[in-house]
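ok, trying the design again with the full structure, not the truncated one.
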């Protein structure tokens, strides 16, 4: 079964999917996200609803980090993945 995952053809296909993911995020999702944030921000400024714009900016910042830096957190060697693995090892070792 392990030979199936170690197949060089699958590794090349996975590399191609990674490039496709990067292209979609950088060329499509990113600009649409920035345009949507700007449009809603201008709408809140026009209506002078300052509490709504502050809430919106905070949520947009969190979503922006997840969109643009999601791989750094959730990839196989990402920060949050590594932290979760280490915590699971600590819990497993303690029990």
């Amino acid at each position: 079964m392990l030979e199936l995952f170690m197949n060089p053809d699958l590794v090349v296909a996975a590399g191609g999917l990674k490039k496709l993911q990067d292209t979609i995020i950088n060329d499509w999702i990113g600009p649409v996200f920035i345009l949507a944030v700007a449009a809603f921000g201008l709408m809140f400024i026009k209506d002078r609803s300052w509490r709504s714009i502050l809430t919106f900016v905070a949520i947009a910042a969190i979503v922006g980090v997840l969109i643009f830096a999601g791989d750094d957190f959730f990839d196989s060697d990402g920060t949050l993945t590594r932290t979760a693995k280490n915590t699971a090892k600590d819990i497993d070792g303690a029990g």
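Keeping the full-length input from now on. The longest helix spans residues 8-47.
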